[in-house]
Specification:
By secondary structure, the chain is an alpha/beta fold. It contains ten helices and nine strands.
């Protein structure tokens, strides 16, 4: 039986992927900050007949990401599927967001993803099998004023995933970047984007729909997947307009409605 490690596993896309992987016979290693919620998803997944280990850790701290890898390595638990789902966003003008919050986001969204991809991909390569799913976003395809840091982190995830996937050709290991649009999870409450144009006017997807699409990506060994026809059209349209226009339109979607006309 293969084992899947999922970060940010207690809600949203991470939770749905955990239940989907459990339903398809994968043992699970789940990590998130909230131990109570981890125990709830553990019980739900175990009811599907799989073994589940939980690691309540704040992965925005480098020492915790390192501890997660080394504890699994020492326990001789081979990770066959890695889902780097943990992450968050912050809405607002870049200079108005406290640096401590931005720095925490950069560490979790980029450095933790890069570290876990690096370490587990090496182990997978040695075994000639592995699947890594990194959660990016359609925000990865253009700069995003008023979510500047978040969009930059997702551009990093997309670029890293595509490049490492290419380097691993022929090894039995693939790295896939899942790029959803607006998804109904707790993300928008945490990021403060529930009332911006993006959330109000763009089509929404459920976390389960996006998780099913992500599972399809790794099953078919696809490098990049943008979920939803409308989102794919948005990404394609970015290639057809000047960069300045893309930035302007992105700003209109991401700026708070009360300020959009200023």
């Amino acid at each position: 039986m293969k084992t899947a490690l999922i970060t940010g596993a207690t809600s949203g896309i991470g939770r749905e992927l955990a239940l989907l992987l459990a339903a398809t016979g994968h043992d699970l290693v789940l990590s998130a900050r909230n131990e109570t919620q981890l125990n709830r998803i553990k019980e739900e997944a175990e009811s599907r007949g799989v073994a589940v280990r939980i690691y309540p850790l704040d992965l925005s701290k480098a020492e915790n990401a390192e501890a997660l890898y080394h504890r699994l390595h020492e326990a001789q638990i081979p990770v066959d599927i890695l889902v780097n789902n943990a992450g968050f966003g912050a809405d607002g003008a870049y200079l108005d967001i406290p640096w401590e919050k931005e720095e925490e986001m950069f560490r979790l969204n980029m450095l933790t993803v890069a570290y876990l991809t690096h370490m587990f991909a090496a182990d997978m390569k040695a075994r000639s099998f592995g699947r890594i799913l990194n959660i990016a976003s359609i925000a990865a395809f253009q700069p995003g004023p008023y979510m500047a840091g978040y969009c930059a982190t997702k551009a990093f995830v997309l670029s890293l995933s595509e490049a490492v996937n290419y380097e691993l050709k022929g090894t039995g290991v693939t790295v896939s970047a899942l790029c959803p649009g607006v998804t109904d999870t707790g993300f928008h409450r945490v990021a403060g984007t529930e009332k911006v144009g993006m959330s109000r006017y763009l089509p929404h997807a459920s976390a389960r729909e996006v998780a099913q699409y992500g599972y399809k990506l790794i099953s078919q060994r696809q490098a990049v997947g943008v979920y939803g026809f409308f989102n794919r059209m948005l990404v394609f349209a970015n290639r057809l307009v000047p960069r300045s226009v893309s930035v302007y339109l992105s700003a209109r979607l991401l700026k708070a409605e009360a300020e959009a006309g200023k």
